[in-house]
Amino acid sequence: MQQAIQAFLLIPKDSDFTIKNIPFGVASKPNGNPFPATIIGDSVINLAKLEELGYFNGPLFSTLGSKVFDSGNLNKFVSLSRPYWKEVRYQIQSLFQCGSQLENNQEALAQIITPVQDTQNHLPITIGEYTDFYSSKNHAFNMGSIIRGPDNAMQPNWYYLPVGYHGRRSSIVIDGTDIRRPWGQVKAPTAEKPSFTKCKRLDYELEIGAVIGGTPNNLGEPIKVNQAEDRVFGFVILNDWSARDVQVWEYVPLGPFGAKNFASTISPWIVSIEALEPFRIQLPEQDPEPFVYLKEKNHTSFDIRLEVLIGTEKSPELEHFTTSNFKYMYWSVNQQIAHHSITGCNIQPGDLFGSGTISGTTKDGRGCLMEYTWNGKEPLVLKSGEQRLFLEDGDVLEMRGYAGEGENRVGFGRCKGKILPALDEAYFQS
């Protein structure tokens, strides 16, 4: 049972941002500079102001000797360690609970709090490197069945290691950023040659992103799997947009390239492990037994409900059509970190790890349109009667995620993007 904490700030019903959450992000006021922030209900809290006014005075933070929240990103804070992250989170909860020293200090509150509608979110960190994995068994089986048939769905290596590839950080964008349909080379199954064309099979991928923090491991020294969680600052929702038709032609032999580098969207608030701890769940036993460097004492994930909604130009009201869950992971985040570093790779604070598409056990739990429509054979039929095989221009795709209910709810906010038409072909002729 969670400890009862009552905030003095107004928290709307079903808010993702209860006082049990305390996520971390970056926001700005109109025409203002970005500042590190948290959010409770509809109140955005300026962490730089809290630090400036001396409210972060715990035994760890008070010995640092320099400011942590004085820049337009969270990188300094992320580069600390879990005891510092926990201390700050606890102090924020204490400051904003009923009866605190801050509750009736209107002068301080006026400097610290801004209504959420008067703020804009920004990328919470300057991202270092981006790695995307392929760790949901349901998704891997479905995609393998589409491509190779159910008898050969799983590649031989999949049960032995967390499959992944290195992505591109420069095109990772914040919730609400429009996504332009990409161009690329495509080869139809019956064509003799590829063609240069607009992507016609534009897709999303429902993922959770792990934000890496803490002290980096030295080059040549892998991170031990049972210490890996200390390197996880927190989690975001991640939409790893995909150009499926481009990917089919380009991915041999080195894997995805342009089909996956044009955009990835993340939700603006990083939710901590401490906030999600009440929702930790055991993952199924792995078979075969993992090698020693991947064998965890506790093989766990979190019970995070994940939803996908779509709106179209004809029917702009968002319609929910997919529900999945972070519990549908085969390889855990800790195992991903351990495998990523087993060769001695030095993983840095500010890196981002994508879980890979997370799919449930039923059709309405499939985490991308290629799965949901079984590669275009089973259309998604919307209430308006419109059908979708893949995303069309003007479509708005939104992801949401949360754990718990009511005053114990811990959520991520939204991860949303609108599809813009591809550039005109004349663009490439000048």
TrEMBL record:
Annotated metabolic or biological route of this protein: Amino-acid degradation; L-phenylalanine degradation; acetoacetate and fumarate from L-phenylalanine: step 6/6
Q: Which residues form the Fumarylacetoacetase N-terminal domain?
A: 20-124
- Annotated Fumarylacetoacetase-like C-terminal domain residues: 131-410
A GO molecular function assigned to this protein is: fumarylacetoacetase activity
Instruction: Give the active-site positions.
Output: 139
Reactions accelerated catalytically: 4-fumarylacetoacetate + H2O = acetoacetate + fumarate + H(+)
A Pfam family annotated for this chain is FAA_hydrolase
Binding residues for Mg(2+), per the UniProt record? 240, 260, 264
Residues holding Ca(2+): 132, 205, 207, 240
Instruction: Give cofactor(s), names only.
Output: Mg(2+); Ca(2+)
Say if the entry is tagged with keyword 4Fe-4S.
Answer: no
Q: Binding residues for substrate, per the UniProt record?
A: 134, 148, 247, 251, 357
Question: Which family would the database say this protein is a member of?
Answer: Belongs to the FAH family.
Protein name per the record: Fumarylacetoacetase
> Can you name the source organism?
Paramecium pentaurelia
